[in-house]
Design brief:
Elements (H helix, E strand, L loop, with lengths): L2 H14 L7 H19 L2 H41 L1
């Protein structure tokens, strides 16, 4: 990333992204991740493979929500910048 891109990324993650932590959908997915991890750790070895796959799917879903919100914040920032320049 360029220094500007890095700065924008850090701004989104530190200043704008924290609102997602209060989002009900995000909290629900993070809870699913925690539940899946707990099940994985408690399962006998023969069941762990199946549980691990479920855990990875849930984690990927959570990460997808996170990336979606980061992308939306980037678009909002671009809009704000263009509005200031016009």
């Amino acid at each position: 990333m360029t220094p500007l891109q890095e700065h924008l990324y850090q701004y989104i993650m530190e200043d704008r992204f924290t609102a997602q932590l209060a989002d009900e959908a995000y909290q629900a997915v993070r809870q699913q991740v925690s539940d899946a991890e707990a099940q994985l750790l408690a399962a006998p070895p023969e069941d762990q493979r199946h549980l691990f796959i479920q855990y990875i799917d849930t984690e990927n879903n959570a990460f997808s929500l996170q990336l979606r919100d980061v992308f939306q914040e980037a678009l909002l920032i671009a809009h704000d910048i263009l509005r200031l320049l016009l």
